[in-house]
Amino acid sequence: MEIAKYTIAFVALFNYGGLVADAIVPSGAKQHLFNPKWPPHAKFHNGQTMAMGIISGSLSLAILFGSRPLTLPLFLIAAAVAANYFVAMALARAFPGTAWSDPEFAVRLPRPLGLYPQQLVTYVLCTLVLIAVALAVLAH
To answer: For the chain, what is the domain count?
Structure first.
C-alpha cells in the first residue's frame, strides 16, 4: 500500500496548487484573484476554493502520515479528501455559464492534448486517485 499512499500524498500536495496558481504565480493570479474584471463575489469564491484546497490537502496528508497503522478505511478517506478538490473541479463545468477559462485568456493559454491546463491536471490527478485506490484495495 506504500505506492498507493505516496500517490495520494502527491495528489494531496496538488490541493495547494489552487493557492499557488490563483494567487502567487503572476500569469495565473492575473486571471483569478488579481483579475480586475472579476467582481468581489467571484473573488470570494476563488478564495473559498483555495482555502478548501489547503484544508483538504492538509487533512489528507494528516490522515496518511499521522495514522498508525494506516488502515484501508483510513486510506480511502484520505484518498476521497485528496480527490474532492479535483472531482469538484471536473464537475464544475456542468453548471450553467461556467468555463475552464475567461474568454480574454482562453486564446493565449496552451492547450496540451486539446485541454486547458487545469483541465488536464484535474483529469490526470483523478486518474491517479483511481489507480491508487485500486492498488490499495488489491493489496488488502
So the answer is: 1
